[in-house]
Amino acid sequence: MEVVVGTTPGDAARRAAEAVLAGLPTDGDRDPVLGLATGSSPLGLYRELGRAVAEGRVDFSRTHGIALDEYVGLPPGHPEGYRQVLLREVCGVIGLAPERLAVPDGSATDLPSLVAAARAYEERIRQLGGVDVQILGIGANGHLGFNEPGSALTSRTRVKRLSERTRRDNARFFTGLDDVPTHCVTQGLGTILAARRLVLVATGDAKAEAVAAALEGPLSASVPASVLQWHPDTVVCLDEAAASALRNRQYYDDAAAGLPER
Ligand code: GLP
Q: How confident is the model at residue 121 (pLDDT cuts 50, 70, 90)?
């Protein structure tokens, strides 16, 4: 696990963008697959990727985008549905074709249809050859995607109940708490772990405790983001505030400095 602490949120976003670009295949044998997260944390990273496109350093026109999760029960086209959010906040910014964006289908309201949609999503990821780089944020309760505390560490895409904490945190995007869906379809922790590289971005004081528990606490379903410890290629990009509760900070900085010059 590589832990990179930027001086500012912008610096963390730049480092995260470099980690994403370094993890994408360049051989041209198959189309790259980029896992996308919603939330405010990766917005700076998407802007940095957009800048790399403008500078001609990368081209996402052949890249497939795979969303982490979607709410259940929002009507198609709802502005806070994650398909619309990703179309708005990512596709336009990095030049990803909307028809190459896959988002779990949460539009059904009966369980068998949602279970079928979750299976179909896993199959779609498999058909694409798996995710090359999965971008992640972290919930204040340690969730990844919508894998709430208690999620099985090997879980695959499925229907989940949202915790009240998450519904309250996300109520700012809706007219009120009552309008926040109670359920979602989310990639499982096992699905996320199958991506070849994970890049997590977290900024601000509100994430400090969750980041410390995920990176330095025990591997536990109670802190879903602690599965990052299980993955062989994880890069965590933080700003000073999000890194403020880490105990091993000096070690991360030493490791980031690389081999000594001779
Ligand atoms: C939502 C998303 C997560 C995201 C989290 C944190 O719950 N499902 O993928 O990581 O919000 O959001 P923010 O980055 O806005 O704090």
A: very high
Locate the ligand 1 atom nearest the alpha carbon of residue 137 and give its number: 10
pTM, entire model: 0.96
Whether 150 is covered by a domain: the verdict is yes
Residue 262 lies in a domain: no
* Nearest CA-CA partner of 162 in 80, 87, 70: 70
Assign residue 39 a region: left if phi > 0, alpha if psi is -120 to 50, beta otherwise? left
26 confidence band (pLDDT: 50, 70, 90)? confident
Q: Is residue 58 part of a domain?
A: yes
Count of domains forming the chain:
1
**Ligand 1 atom with minimal separation from the 68 CA:** 9
Pocket test for ligand 1, best of 169, 172, 236 (most atoms within 8 A of CB): 169
Domain with residue 139: its CATH number is 3.40.50.1360
Q: Which of 50, 63, 80 lies closest to 23, judged by CA?
A: 63
Q: Is 69 in the pocket of ligand 1 (CB under 6 A)?
A: yes
Domain that holds residue 120: 2-239+249-256
